Every structure is written in C-alpha cells, then in structure tokens.
Amino acid sequence: MSSESKAYQEKSINQVKLDIGRVAASLVEPHDYIVMDTGTTLSAMASYLTSPLTVVTNAVECLITLSQVQGIDLHFIGGHFNSFHRAMLGTTAIGQLSQYRLNKAFIGVCALSEYGVSTTSEEEASMKKAMVEQAQLVVLVCDSSKFGQQHLFKVCDLEKVDIIVTNQYPPSPISDIIESNDIHLIVTNQSTES
Prior knowledge:
The chain is an alpha/beta fold and 194 residues long. The chain is 27% helix and 27% strand. It is built from 6 helices and 12 strands. It has helices at 15-25, 40-46, 60-66, 91-97, 122-134, 174-180, and strands spanning 33-36, 53-57, 72-76, 80-82, 87-89, 102-108, 111-113, 116-119, 135-141, 153-156, 163-166, 184-187.
C-alpha cells in the first residue's frame, strides 16, 4: 500500500512522461471522440494532439493546452473544481460526462497493482470509473513508478483496460494479468514501438 500523493502543482512533466504522452497521442485517429483524464502525463499527451478531433476533458491543463489548437472541438466538463487534482470532479461532472459516447478514454494512473487501478480520492475514482464506462476503448497512461502501488479507492479491474502505455515492463503478477486479458502493452523505452 502507498499513501504517497502529491498535488498536481507539485509534480513535474519529465522526459518519461513526455515520451508516454507522445505515444498515447499517436493512438488518436482523425475524427476520434476521446475523453482525457487529469494528470501530468495526460497534460504531456495534450501537447501532441492535432485536429480534426473531439476532446471531452475535466482537466484544466488539457483545456488550456487544447484550446490553442485550431480544429479541436473541445468540451469541458463542469462541476466542482478540485484544486489538488486541477480538475472538475463530483456528481455534476459525472452527470455531464454520461451525456457523451466516446470511442477512446485516456486515463491517468495513480496506482496499478494485480488488484486493478486505484486512487487516493473517492471523488477522483468515481470520475475515472465514469470515463472508463463511457468509452469503447480504455487506454491507461502510466509511468512505471505506479506499478505495484495500491490506494484505497478502486477505479477498475485490469480486465476493463484495452491498452497500457508505459515506460517499462511491469513486474509479475501485473504482467501475467495483462497477458491473460490480451491487454496491448506499449513500452516507450523500447527501440521499436508498436
């Protein structure tokens, strides 16, 4: 179990997160309808996105970045502003999200273990869960420091995930679950990317 949690402003966007963000952005196709979660790796991803594209997000940093890209149809989810996560969270935001049908969800990861994806905040877990439910394809963006971590509030089991973009191969038993569920694992520090 890990209780370590930093506010968005205390985190930095390093080269690892930029690489993960770039590869995650390459999974977006023209005219996709995507939802983007909050987090520094998602903020990195936003900087690589191009139009034509429709993006739904609750993340302030994604909103700021994507509002400067011409041709992106941008939808910002309202509700309660959570300054720790720099995102809109709560029942209003979840209710608004339920009005959209999205083909891809890009989810930031606080903790990933054999028990699934989890986070320190019930409000954030509920929002991530709603994003997973609204999308046809679920992509986790996750640096390797999140592997083997577990927090109190569950987001989803790994069975709900289609793709994981990360910078290192996860340890067993996480890798076993990924393999047994046919989750596509993309590791950015490899010389060839798939």
